[in-house]
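> example.struct
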């Protein structure tokens, strides 16, 4: 059976997909694709161009010509470093809105596939295993309890894990996950051929080790 040299890691917001995927990519000497960044960049680009996130044709036209560049963990839009700007929850909501539009997803499809070079790829997002790399050699659904995920996001933003601001982070995460699950186009879900990695009680190191163990199990011939 044909298998692409791709480890596809999908899952809900703030579960640790990006951190784990980037670490696994570095350990294996592979390229890394943060597919969510493309949807975030599209949302920011639309906002800057005065285009509504619901205007499917106009947003898709912008996505098809997205003036984005990636280098390491930094990302540029039309020459400006927007690495921090695209991480706001407002742009996260915008990303979720534009990601529900089939024409936008189609416009970004080839761009995501172009990240796969000879060294192989580790890709994270919502539909890496289902749509972008259906023949990935290893598919993982990486998740954690919503409250644990909200705590991780709060720590990233230097916000205490109690109080109104924390509760807002939790409800924003739950609202975005719910929208991503309910949409018709590439909904967030665990595929039958994906392995479940619940990191609620796992450190980053333990999560990375589990992915690498699964990868080695697949790539080493059994005795
Ligand atoms: O990409 P995604 O939104 O799924 O999550 P992330 O940005 O990689 O991770 C969110 C935060 O959780 C980061 O600050 C990670 O360092 C942290 N994290 C953690 O504390 N424990 C894990 N097992 C995985 C991630
Ligand atoms: O970091 P976090 O998990 O919060 O979000 P992200 O991976 O940067 O993705 C932002 C939004 O883009 C998600 O809520 C999804 O709606 C959308 N997305 C998608 O539809 N398909 C992907 N492959 C990646 C992201």
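> example.seq
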């Amino acid at each position: 059976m044909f298998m692409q040299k791709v480890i596809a890691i999908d899952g809900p917001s703030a579960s640790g997909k990006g951190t784990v995927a980037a670490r696994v990519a570095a350990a294996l000497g592979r390229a890394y694709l943060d597919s969510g960044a493309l949807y975030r960049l599209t949302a920011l680009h639309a906002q800057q161009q005065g285009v509504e996130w619901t205007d499917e044709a106009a947003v898709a036209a912008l996505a098809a010509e997205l003036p984005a560049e990636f280098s390491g963990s930094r990302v540029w839009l039309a020459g400006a470093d927007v690495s921090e700007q695209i991480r706001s929850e407002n742009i996260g909501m915008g990303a979720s809105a534009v990601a529900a539009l089939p024409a936008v997803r189609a416009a970004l499809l080839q761009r995501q596939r172009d990240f796969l070079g000879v060294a192989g790829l580790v890709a994270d997002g919502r539909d890496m295993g289902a749509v972008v790399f259906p023949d990935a050699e290893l598919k993982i659904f990486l998740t954690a309890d919503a409250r644990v995920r909200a705590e991780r996001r709060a720590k990233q933003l230097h916000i205490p894990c109690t109080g109104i601001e924390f509760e807002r982070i939790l409800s924003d995460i739950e609202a975005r996950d719910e929208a991503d699950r309910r949409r018709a186009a590439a909904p967030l879900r665990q595929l039958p051929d994906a392995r479940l990695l619940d990191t609620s009680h796992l450190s980053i190191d333990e999560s990375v080790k589990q992915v690498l163990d699964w990868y080695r199990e697949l790539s080493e011939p059994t005795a």
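> remarks
The first strand starts at residue 4 and ends at 10.
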